Amino acid sequence: xxxxxxxxxxxxxxxxxxxxxxxxxxxxxxxxxxxxxxxxxxxxxxxxxxxxxxxxxxxxxxxxxxxxxxxxxxxxxxxxxxxxxxxxxxxxxxxxxxxxxxxxxxxxxxxxxxxxxxxxxxxxxxxxxxxxxxxxxxxxxxxxxxxxxxxxxxxxxxxxxxxxxxxxxxxxxxxxxxxxxxxxxxxxxxxxxxxxxxxxxxxxxxxxxxxxxxxxxxxxxxxxxxxxxxxxxxxxxxxxxxxxxxxxxxxxxxxxx
Length: 257
Known about the structure:
By secondary structure, the chain is of the alpha+beta class. It has helices at 2-29, 35-42, 48-62, 172-178, 192-202, 215-220; strands spanning 71-76, 86-90, 95-100, 128-138, 141-148, 163-165, 207-211. It has a seven-stranded mixed sheet with strand order 3-2-1-7-4-5-6, sandwiched between helices. Strand 4 (128-138) and strand 5 (141-148) form a beta hairpin.
């Protein structure tokens, strides 16, 4: 009898050990969540495909600099101005810091953005990847300069004074009264109440990605190219290395809707 009890106990112990080992192996085999996965969970209102393009562009931009950005800003201009469409993430902690309204240029559209430009005097917003630079106090108060990384799409951002700044026309009251935010001269303007905190969070090297399903930009962006634009050197950033000559091209990104 005692022998049978011992055998049953041993069988149960072995089964429990095998179950625990199996669970441990399954856990060990589970893949680590990607950066896109983690940020998407933190910002469920941000279109996952847009976020995926942003992290892809971030990775390409990171190949051109020794200093990795610590924050990521994503603007989805395909959303109406009445919705929050600017997200700022802490890349070290992989958490959401800001989810805000942001204005577009007066000639980019009414409530919805429809067209973009890199030209001075166009009063339009620009698309693509930017790196933030220095803050300053100017006509619009505390502001943040940005350098565009994509020739032909946003590389004239500094000369056009395309900066992040606070503006009174970015407000819930204005949305209620006129059905949309006010519009800038091309700058991604934000609420005055959060402008300083946001600027201080992202100044000096953050990566900002401005999206819209514009076919010309999607086809021509070096930051979204399979080789990060290294074969033709069209990125505004310098110091690129030539891609291997036998590199196989990958498909261009499709436009999230």
